[in-house]
Amino acid sequence: MSRLVFVLNGPNLNLLGKRQPHIYGHETLADVAAKCRALGAELGLEIRFHQSNREYEIIDWIHEAREIAGGIVINPAAFTHTSVAILDALNTFDHPVIEVHISNVHKREEFRHHSFVSGRADGVIAGFGTQGYLLGLRRVASLLDEKKA
Ligand code: DQA
User: How many helices (H) and strands (E) does the chain have?
Assistant: First the structure.
């Protein structure tokens, strides 16, 4: 099984660190990418880290992951609550999918309580700050290790 993991980020996460820091914290997305790569090296995972404000680009990365990756960690951001297309794309992916939200979406506005992506995700992490990405990678690594055993 491939130990390549795609870490995908949806709209506005390019502004992480500047955008509503009282909700999303002060770390930038580049900081998160660096931490994911460092943990990936520890866990024997190769990381491809992407962000886009365009839904189709996220779908294209999921299609690419379908061919070559063993797992996906995804923070679809606002697309979480709107995108059947991202859910459909994830449903074509046969390996672990972990959904991550930096904030606890359940503590926030009602419209954030529903996630289309959760209908496919093998696990959902919310409210752990950017640490959620690292927890997601640890979970993908252990699911891949279980499959190997
Ligand atoms: C988010 C939560 C979403 O509701 C929001 O639209 C985001 C970020 C999070 O990481 O907490 O952009 O996915």
Answer: 5, 5
